[in-house]
Amino acid sequence: MKKTSVRTRVLTGTVAVAALAAGVGAVSASAETTETPAAPAAVKADTQNKDLAQTTGLTIDAATRAAQAALDAATKAGQHVSVAVVDRDGVTRVLLKGDGAGPQAPESAERKAFTAVSWNAPTSELAKRLAQAPNLKDIPGTLFLAGGAPVQAKGAPVAGIGVAGAPSGDLDEQFAQAGVAALAK
Amino acid sequence: MKKTSVRTRVLTGTVAVAALAAGVGAVSASAETTETPAAPAAVKADTQNKDLAQTTGLTIDAATRAAQAALDAATKAGQHVSVAVVDRDGVTRVLLKGDGAGPQAPESAERKAFTAVSWNAPTSELAKRLAQAPNLKDIPGTLFLAGGAPVQAKGAPVAGIGVAGAPSGDLDEQFAQAGVAALAK
Amino acid sequence: MKKTSVRTRVLTGTVAVAALAAGVGAVSASAETTETPAAPAAVKADTQNKDLAQTTGLTIDAATRAAQAALDAATKAGQHVSVAVVDRDGVTRVLLKGDGAGPQAPESAERKAFTAVSWNAPTSELAKRLAQAPNLKDIPGTLFLAGGAPVQAKGAPVAGIGVAGAPSGDLDEQFAQAGVAALAK
Amino acid sequence: MKKTSVRTRVLTGTVAVAALAAGVGAVSASAETTETPAAPAAVKADTQNKDLAQTTGLTIDAATRAAQAALDAATKAGQHVSVAVVDRDGVTRVLLKGDGAGPQAPESAERKAFTAVSWNAPTSELAKRLAQAPNLKDIPGTLFLAGGAPVQAKGAPVAGIGVAGAPSGDLDEQFAQAGVAALAK
Amino acid sequence: MKKTSVRTRVLTGTVAVAALAAGVGAVSASAETTETPAAPAAVKADTQNKDLAQTTGLTIDAATRAAQAALDAATKAGQHVSVAVVDRDGVTRVLLKGDGAGPQAPESAERKAFTAVSWNAPTSELAKRLAQAPNLKDIPGTLFLAGGAPVQAKGAPVAGIGVAGAPSGDLDEQFAQAGVAALAK
Amino acid sequence: MKKTSVRTRVLTGTVAVAALAAGVGAVSASAETTETPAAPAAVKADTQNKDLAQTTGLTIDAATRAAQAALDAATKAGQHVSVAVVDRDGVTRVLLKGDGAGPQAPESAERKAFTAVSWNAPTSELAKRLAQAPNLKDIPGTLFLAGGAPVQAKGAPVAGIGVAGAPSGDLDEQFAQAGVAALAK
Amino acid sequence: MKKTSVRTRVLTGTVAVAALAAGVGAVSASAETTETPAAPAAVKADTQNKDLAQTTGLTIDAATRAAQAALDAATKAGQHVSVAVVDRDGVTRVLLKGDGAGPQAPESAERKAFTAVSWNAPTSELAKRLAQAPNLKDIPGTLFLAGGAPVQAKGAPVAGIGVAGAPSGDLDEQFAQAGVAALAK
Amino acid sequence: MKKTSVRTRVLTGTVAVAALAAGVGAVSASAETTETPAAPAAVKADTQNKDLAQTTGLTIDAATRAAQAALDAATKAGQHVSVAVVDRDGVTRVLLKGDGAGPQAPESAERKAFTAVSWNAPTSELAKRLAQAPNLKDIPGTLFLAGGAPVQAKGAPVAGIGVAGAPSGDLDEQFAQAGVAALAK
Fold first, then answer.
1. H27 touches chain F (CB under 8 A)
2. What pTM value is reported for the model?
3. Contact F80/H141, CB-based, under 8 Å?
């Protein structure tokens, strides 16, 4: 796989939100048939062997740094949370159960991360889409609660960060975004 | 089991929708007691041994062709999806996880296919029936999101095709119907 | 355990419905605190050994007869269903997957039977109670769809019969009641 | 699907054992590469629509009769057992938990039936094959204990009958064979 | 871990309710971002080894006494229930399935206890919060039905008590609170 | 159901071992076909209604007393264990996770209790039977490690007590037997 | 597939076996501490963004072609099998349940493929290693039966192909290798 | 980490092995009844409230540092592994799936850590004990493969570290011990 002058950037979740704001509604499950432009995929054909494709993901160092940044943000705010980073296949790369986090937090964090990377959007946005497609939340492995943020490379989802345990999902998501932000540095 | 001049036809999902439109509402879980005519079953008694019955299903060649057609339709539309074909017993015959499809897609596709073959109707229709019988969606293995289409032989369900991963369930179902259509050729 | 002249009767579900109609609403999860009279339990202390108790249930012959009666009623009505009989512990005693029944039917039948015996009421009644206590349906193992009927002895639940697969839950429950009725003969 | 003069026979398990005895060893997992003749399959192409195939199975009446015969044989011998009949897809068609059968019996019966229909042989035979291929028993859903017997039509497996709960697996299998024998009448 | 003059008190659930009443709404999943003060955690750093932390929980004697008190309260009221006590990690310490309790009761009791200790609030309160954050109830392991009460030490959750099986969740919770009260003596 | 002069006794596990010692080997899965006498079942037909049967079990008071006695015996010996009491259906009636017991202990205790009640023998005896029937241990829900003891009434199994967490299974079983002994008083 | 001077080759399983033959024994779980050279990983750091890494996998077209080739080889040999292709994350990309394949086949095929890609070796080789490290087979998701083959790119595992259903594991693996071979063309 | 005169030490795994060597054999499941001295528990009664007890565990900072040290050791040795740190309740505190680690590695790592903390011994030692008590490995959640090491405080287990993915379990355990060692500094 050859990459030339294009700079691979990891967008922060904030930017992701903005980018997605325009496309909100495109995920509605049954109310429309407008063919929206396909989202870019983090899978590229191998130019030298047509049977192979490359999938972009985070290194474990980057994933750990992001998770730690999310946890630090929560700790700084006096909150007890769990943090998960999952890859594009939905597989957990990093899980941290913070001191004092409740027993429900780790799986919540993983599911928020899974949901964010599946739809390439923050779970706070995705939760709003349930108004149009309420049964989306019945898809196995998902959790439509604020606290999940996608990590993107060239607009494609390469990972998801999920946080759970704070008194509000918005707080959780703020910490998750702190994790995403740590990757852009 | 003797079959004479009647041509066994595999109806496309579109026809199936039309056929079912008349019967919509018949599935309501608790609101009515009208005895609707029984749907035809894909199980026939064996004329030579009363203990045996024949169940009709797709060959693996047909199931693979249908799945590939659904995936091709999605690819042509620039969408990254997973496709599943399940038989009348709800068992997966073919599963394809397309390039770039999200981690939530394969099980969603299987559940949509399972739901379509269970009720012999497209999941877009079935999702509407939840207005009358909301708890139908609590039945294990189901997913009431557009994207599933039944495959029928003489009106009886012989398989289900499910697609998941496009930005709307209607798109998913369009691809599933392309899979059904490939069987009618 | 002393039993005198009282005849142990297995009430049909229809009577059960009447008995429960008066108590409907008593199951609301959080809206009220009225202490309703406790339901009779099918567990009796052993008069000769205070450590032992007797639990009443159906014999396998009775359970099989009831299941067969429910299936026969469905077949007579031209419907393809599954039938389950569970005991007071929620354990399946009989499961019949009828010819042509869909893949979703067996587990649906078991869950309806489980739900009916857990609350000692037909699931059509229980589904109505969700209006007051919607989260009841989140209890593991349950299904709040018509089609389940309790079997009672002296008012206490000793088994549940569940039917699934007909185009309406009311039909399913009619067949389940036919199963209960077969025990009263 | 037209069947003419060939009589569809349901072989008893005893005959099946004999037929398989010659082929014992053919299932060894890794020790040999001799290409043994393929077993006949209970799936036939549909002569009028190349996309369809017919799978042979038992009617619910036959399956229930077989299960009842197995349970009766156990009761006559003073044993408390559970009986299961599964179809070629491994799906349970009939489950009977007899009076006094232990809590481990129903799932054991289902797994024995599943194993017998999967390999088209009695589980007492299959258990012996573990000497050569010990890891066969790690395949999900299986149980390599005597007590399971295949039901065959023209040599192909169309169902499995499993019994569990007697003090020895050989007794369990004797009852399972009584179930198979009830189909040959 | 050094503790001086502060008396470690186990608050009754009633007090907990009062304490939480002020904070109700703080759990809303997505509607607000106000940073509420963090709840106290039952995990303390070890003053002598910074790598270690102490988590406070109930002794098995205390947990058993609380469970028994809850069961006694139910029995006195003529109700058949199950009682569970879980620790701060969500692990069950005590489970009692009372005479005549339905098959759905034990897992309901465990989930109510799990939910109460996870959010440090009675489940009757938590159920109300679903009005603002309906998807909270999709978090694995939870059950948002009245009947669960937190056990607190210095305001932090150290255990949860759950009761299930009475005709109303409010009754269940009354019994759970009786369990909490037994710890304050 | 009438019981006259026969005294219902709860045998201690020690006696049970003796009684079973004579029958050891009867459980071999495939090596023999000797028809051993059937074990007595804790299910009795109801003399007044042929459709009903009575199953004998422990009261919750007795089950709790037994569990507590087992835990006390372990504590006295300085061991940290979990104790479980399950009924004849394999359902957990009491679970106690003692102070300092490892995370593997509760489920081990439940499985030992389940195994003991399923075969009506101490698990130390059952483990020996694996020499003849090694695949018995593949039956779901079982654990063939010393530490489980059956509770019997008139020779029939009415409950199982399991203990796990001590440095040897023999110690675990000694504590389980202390639980059984508490019922005979 | 044409490959010229570029060195990215997809090795056939046969070559893989040869390559691994030299290293056999290196996977023993506990018997040795010799630090063997690390296997090459199919994950490469991104030269332009140190936080990103590329993982190599098969395109869905290649995976489908390989699965079809394996199924064709089985059909040609008169065998009824299931075929699975999983990626380096163990996620199923393609599943085909062939006509007449038993109910145990699909999950067996997936587990063989999972095992082959996890250890980068054919499962026939891996099964031999159990002689030294018997507990390897207790790792969740694995199956140590012949029939799985790794797909490699530059020596690193990029996919696994599993086949199940033939009378011997060696036959299954022969078909899996036919699938791998289809990628080298 | 500075430790002065206080005796709370976190022993390295190497020391733990030595300490345990004397006690090896004490875990045999059924072969002996010698009452070995009880292991110290990481649960202490609260001197001021007899209902409360303190459980010692690692802080998230310490657990993360240990996991990172284990991963670094593996990376330095050129191995691709997953690392897990679980607490005394068996709950995962940290999970890291390293770059290039196989799909089987994360759950293997968690189970090794679970096993080590459950028996307070390295899994290489525990695997040897299977010679005497082979069924220990049937306990749910465990994995008896080298690669797990306990973390101790005053001799009691407070956490477990598990590593999986290297070509030998001994290598895995070497990395796990590096994680333990990082806590002693």
1. yes
2. 0.85
3. no
pLDDT at C81 over 60: yes
Query: Which E residues 90-129 touch H at CB under 8 Å?
Result: 91
Residues A165-176 have pLDDT tens digits of 999 999 999 999
CB G48 within 8 A of CB A8: yes
Q: Give the β-pairing of H156-164 and H82-87.
A: antiparallel
Q: Tell me, what DSSP letter sits at residue A50? A: T
What is the tens place of the pLDDT at every residue in D29-73? 333 333 344 556 766 766 578 999 999 999 999 999 999 999 999
In what helix (H) or strand (E) does residue B76 lie, and over which residues does it extend? helix B60-76
**pLDDT tens column, A78-137:** 999 999 999 999 999 999 999 999 999 999 999 999 999 999 999 999 999 999 999 999
Question: What's the confidence (pLDDT) of residue C54?
Answer: 95
Cα(C96)–Cα(C100) distance, integer angstroms: 12
Q: Which amino acid is located at D31 in the chain?
A: A
| DSSP state for residue H145 in the 8-state scheme | S
Confidence of residue D13 (pLDDT cuts 50, 70, 90): very low
Mutate which: C12, C52, C93, vs F, most F CBs within 10 A: C52
Place of tokens 């063939």: F144
**CB nearest H48 (choices: E8, E50, E183):** E8
**CA F7 vs CA C46, C49, F3: distances in Å:** 11, 8, 9
Minimal C-alpha gap between B59 and chain D (Å): 6
Tell me whether residues F144 and H136 touch, CB distance under 8 A: no
Mutation target for F interface from C49, C180, C183: give the one with most F CBs within 10 A: C49
User: A105 to chain E: which residues are within 8 Å by CB?
Assistant: 118
Among residues 125-164 of chain G, which lie with CB inside 8 Å of chain H?
133, 135-136, 138-142, 157
Instruction: Give the model's pLDDT for residue B19.
Output: 31
Q: How many CB atoms lie within 10 A of CB D74?
A: 27
Amino acid letter, B24: V
Residues pairing with B95 in the sheet: B84, G95
Rounded average pLDDT over E1-24: 34
Record the tokens describing residue G91, joined without a space.
């996620």
| Range with the poorest average pLDDT among E172-181, F44-53, G148-157 | F44-53
Q: Which two tokens stand for residue H157?
A: 């287990």
A79 vs E38: CB contact, 8 Å cut-off? yes
> D148-153 and D92-97: which strand pairing?
unpaired
D114, G104 contact by CB (below 8 A): yes
Contact residues, C window 42-101, toward B, CB-based 8 Å cutoff = 77-80, 99-100
Q: How many Cβ atoms from other residues are within 10 Å of residue H107's Cβ? A: 18
Kindly state the greatest CA–CA separation across chain E.
Answer: 51
- Reported confidence tier of residue B43, pLDDT bands at 50, 70, 90: low
Give the count of alpha carbons within 13 A of A69, CB side only. Answer: 20
**Contact criterion met (CB < 8 Å) for A60 and H97:** yes
Spatial CB neighbours of F18, under 8 Å, sequence gap ≥ 6: none
Bigger pLDDT: C97 vs C12? C97
Q: Which candidate from D27, D38, D91 shows the least CB-CB separation from G78?
A: D38
